[in-house]
Every structure is written in structure tokens, then in C-alpha cells.
Design goal:
Layout: H1 10-20, E1 26-30, E2 36-41, E3 44-46, H2 49-58, H3 66-69, E4 72-82, E5 93-97, E6 103-107, E7 110-122, H4 125-135, E8 142-150, E9 155-170, E10 182-194, E11 209-215, E12 225-234, E13 245-252, E14 259-260, E15 265-266
Parallel strand pairs: 3-4
Antiparallel strand pairs: 1-2, 4-7, 5-6, 7-10, 8-9, 9-10, 11-12, 12-13, 14-15
């Protein structure tokens, strides 16, 4: 219910997973004969594009060779919105075996779309095009990314990352001493799910023990119990997929007590 603290870090995990998609891109510079001169990994960081442009213009020590400062990439989350097209019955529940080997009943997740903006900043157009061509073929127009959304459930879901739009701008203004910035902007939508609070594992929903009391009469008010049959799994903490056995026990009684399920004792 609202007011119960929980934090699955789903939005944070989605942001990290999105940035990880682009953290292994390279550009290659050739000489006039087509021989490789250098292979440079393109750095990526979270933040608005304007932040990195301001650093290039204001910090003098960044006035270094192009391959050290540019190209680079930046990305940021721009919006979160509810996705009505993937609406589920939020009152419906499902059971899942959690990472602590307990069966938990969880409400269906809520579909949300998270919009991202990826910017490729470069001085040379060929550098930017190398990066763009290493990205576009994988989005037709979506790319599925598997994310472990809820740790205690071990719930992994495929999150489609959809490429919505590509734009380009050249921010060059001024004389020849002014630093030029070519910016390719790619808009993406991550179709993720948000989970509510997960119940605790006090009761895992698995039957691990069966207990039956036998009476001398069908009238529980006057009948006296004669025998108790108990069956437990061995080991008691076994999971459904484990190799386990059963222990049977028979106990005879001469008293007139009755087992109380609420107090879990003989009264």
C-alpha cells in the first residue's frame, strides 16, 4: 500500500543498462594509404550535452588534440511516462520463487516508458559518422536489453530500447580559432516495468509439513484423539527442484487434548 517503503532501483538500473550499451565504441584514424594510425575508445558520461560544450569552451586546459577531447558521448534521461498500450491488470498477482528460496506473491508490474537522449559530440564529421554507424544497425527500430529489475525476485525482463529519432546540428560560429562542435542527437525510449512492494518471506507458500490427528468419534466435542500422523520433507528447507525425501511419524495419545492451529500447540 502507499506509504510502505520500498526501492527496487529499477529506474537507476535502466539508466545504467542504457549507458552500458554504448560504452565500448571506437573510432579509427587512417593515413592516406589506408593504414590505421590510431584506435580510440569514445568516452561516454551521464549529463546534458550543454554541460560538456560549456567545458570545451570555458576550460582552457581542454584545448588539446582532438583525439583526446573529442569525440565523446553523453546521455541523459529526459522523461518518464505511463504506457497505456502495455497496461496490465494491476489487481492480478503472480507467484515467483525469490532468491531466498521463498515463494512470494507479487502484483503485476506497471509499464512505463523512459525517454533517453544520446548525444555524439565531435569536431570531425567522419568521427561522428563512425560512431553513428556502429549504433544504427542494431536498432530495427528496437534492441532488447535484459535487466534484473527486482533483486529479491530474480525477475529478469527484456526491456526494448526503441530508436525514435536522429537529428544533427553544427554549432560552429565565429572565426577559425573557435572550437567547432558537430552534434548527433539520438532519441530512445526504454519500455520498462515498475514493481510495487514485495511481500516478505515469512511464509513461502510451500507445504513442508502435514499433520493429522485421528479421533475415536466424529463428534469433536466429546471424542478423544487416539493418534497423530506427521509427514515432513527431508531436509525441511528443501526447494521444489531439490532432491528430497519424507519423514513419517506416528504418535499415540491417551489424553483429551486438541491441537489448536492458531496457537500451534495442544490445549
Amino acid at each position: 500500500m502507499l506509504g510502505t517503503y520500498f526501492y527496487h532501483k529499477i529506474i537507476r538500473k535502466t539508466i545504467i543498462a542504457f549507458g552500458t550499451l554504448f560504452n565500448d565504441l571506437y573510432i579509427v584514424h587512417d593515413d592516406k594509404d589506408g593504414n590505421d594510425l590510431s584506435k580510440i575508445k569514445v568516452p561516454i558520461a551521464y549529463g546534458p550535452t550543454q554541460k560538456f560544450l560549456a567545458r570545451l569552451e570555458q576550460v582552457q586546459e581542454l584545448n588539446k588534440p582532438v583525439q583526446i577531447t573529442l569525440p565523446r558521448m553523453s546521455f541523459e534521461m529526459t522523461s518518464i511516462r505511463y504506457d497505456t498500450s502495455r497496461k496490465l491488470n494491476t489487481a492480478q498477482t503472480f507467484k515467483v520463487c525469490g532468491t531466498d528460496s521463498t515463494v512470494k506473491k507479487v502484483y503485476m508490474p506497471v509499464p512505463y516508458n523512459i525517454t533517453f537522449e544520446l548525444s555524439i559530440i565531435s569536431k570531425l564529421n567522419d568521427d561522428a559518422l563512425q560512431v553513428v554507424e556502429q549504433i544504427l544497425p542494431f536498432f530495427q527500430p528496437s534492441f532488447n536489453l535484459t535487466v534484473d529489475l527486482v533483486d529479491e525476485l530474480g525477475e529478469k525482463k527484456d526491456i526494448p530500447i526503441v530508436l525514435d529519432n536522429i537529428s544533427f546540428q553544427d554549432d560552429y560560429e565565429g572565426d577559425f580559432l573557435t572550437r567547432r562542435s558537430l552534434i548527433y542527437t539520438l532519441q530512445f525510449t526504454a519500455k520498462t516495468y515498475l514493481f510495487g512492494p514485495v511481500p516478505g518471506g515469512e511464509s513461502d507458500g510451500l507445504i513442508r509439513k502435514v499433520q493429522v490427528d485421528y479421533y475415536t468419534d466424529t463428534n469433536r466435542q466429546t471424542a478423544k484423539r487416539e493418534m497423530r500422523y506427521t509427514n515432513t520433507i527431508d531436509p525441511i528447507n528443501a526447494d521444489p527442484d531439490d532432491d528430497f525425501g519424507f519423514n513419517d511419524e506416528l504418535v499415540m495419545f491417551t489424553d483429551s487434548r486438541t491441537y489448536s492451529p492458531t496457537q500451534q500447540t495442544d490445549i
